[in-house]
């Protein structure tokens, strides 16, 4: 099954508009994303998030989104029908994420306040604009089993971050060019273990 087959295009478009309106309203009160980036909501945020669907082999699996912030990519993946646990340490963002799941009618998704307190394993771990790979891998390892994959949206410094991470972790990585950013990449991480 392809992830894009989980939810109808009409439903996705309707929920996308609800989510977009909520994000624009809340962003005036709390900093969820950079104000100027909202002008390019589709390209900078929505499309950047949905490109991960290309690399998800198991669309019925569970997703753990680290540092979800304004809901990217977690809410977007949830709107597309994936079962996502969103996380953020900042309580205002947690409240926003819960409201986004409510207004978009995403009962198959939920929010966890602190990614470090997760007590189960997931099939897929995602992150976008959260932290260094070394930090991300610590969270990913905490919720991983042998078959868990990581899909992380990173910028131009990704090679340095991978090199730094290899001092602490063993893993295999595949790098894919971003479809929305000339210097961005998607890093797929498998077989993550601590040295």
Helix content range: 25-40%
Series of secondary-structure elements, N-terminal to C-terminal: HHEHEHEEHEHEE
- Strand order, main sheet: write it out: 3-2-1-4-5-7-6
How many DSSP helices?
6
User: If you compute it from the alpha carbons, what radius of gyration comes out, rounded to the nearest whole angstrom?
Assistant: 16 Å
Task: Profile the largest sheet.
Answer: 7 strands, mixed
- Class from secondary-structure proportions: alpha/beta
| Overall CATH architecture | 3-Layer(aba) Sandwich
Overall domain count? 1
Distance between the termini: 35 Å
Q: Which stretches of 5+ consecutive residues score pLDDT under 50?
A: none
Given the C-alpha coordinates, what overall shape results? Answer: globular
Task: Please tally the β strands and state the result.
Answer: 7
